Amino acid sequence: MLIGVPKEIKVHEYRVGVPPAGVRELVHNGHQVMVQKDAAEEIGMHNEDYERAGAELVETPEEIFERAEMVVKVKEPQAHECAMLREGQVLFTYLHLAPDPAQTNALVESGSVAIAYETVTDNMGGLPLLAPMSEVAGRMSIQAGAHCLEKEQGGRGVLLGGVPGVEPANVTIIGGGVVGSHAARMAVGMGAQVTILDRSIPRLRQLEELFGASAHTIYSTAEALEQSVYSADLVIGAVLVAGAAAPKLVRRDMLPNMRRNSVVVDVAIDQGGCFETSKPTTHADPTYKVDNVLHYCVANMPGAVARTSTLALSNATLPFVIALANKGYRQALLDDPHLANGLNVHRGDVTYEAVARDLGHRFVDPHNALAA
Q1: Pairing of the two strands 56-58 and 32-36
Q2: For 141-150, how does the pLDDT look when each residue is reduced to its tens digit (9 = 90+)?
Q3: Annotation marks residue 100 as catalytic
Q4: What does the mean pLDDT of the chain come to?
Q5: Does domain 2-119+306-371 have CATH number 3.40.50.720?
Q6: Catalytic option among 100, 198, 266, 270
Q7: Count H helices, E strands: the chain?
């Protein structure tokens, strides 16, 4: 199979779909790989590294989309990229379609086969291709939140861990999954007072065992959520409903009751965000204020640590890329129901139920789509 790896074009996005080591593995499996020149130059993965691994370097993304049988990316295709997709061409990347009707419509119209990292599953009910970036984003949320709490950044002027004789910051984490647990790990390590809310009793037990007295675990009710948010210096939105739009748990009318110049970091922004006042921002302009609450809603947070993120992501995605290339997408999806769960759009049909429901598309069962 001829696999194409374009340079990412989202603002301040330096990750790359396949690093040189991944190219070497694909070539070893008998495949051809095209990589756009300078696709990962900014993170120390040079053109010469790709050539040594066996890649063909090409000048433009147009050539990649014109020739490649499968395109492997990191972020969702931008409008210009969607316009270049071909009928039957496989796209393997993060998509986050539920809050993005324009991208969904463009993928449907392209006739391409769009497989989303974030809805591929595993035997334990996890999301193995989302987890690496959730780990990075969870840890980064505390780093970003601590920076935003500085007065110069518009925050309350609070040091996350405090100092002897001065209380540390209160950090509330909404959601105890991968993002939430990694955020808690960082916040606890920095000495903050940490509260984690979740609606899964088994998960709360796991978090209690993990953090002991270092973090408070609370069953998430409307009242508990309000009290925790109102008393927080920093609130992390870490709620995920796989493939669907994130629920709006913090309403606009709650913001005036929050601490003045407190900070919210909405890690769920890729799925629309779990704060009613959230809107996507970029690393170039990451924050804005609503009712004296500073919002950090960068939609590609792991892109700030692009080298670490690229390697972590590739470790998880590469086996699936090899399977798709070795078997062809149809057989690979039929052989692996977990990979088949990643199929969001197939030749004009929406094949992920939550996306179809949230955006009003007709849902086509992926197995029926593949059989046809």
Answers
A1: parallel
A2: 999 999 999 9
A3: no
A4: 96
A5: yes
A6: 270
A7: 14, 15
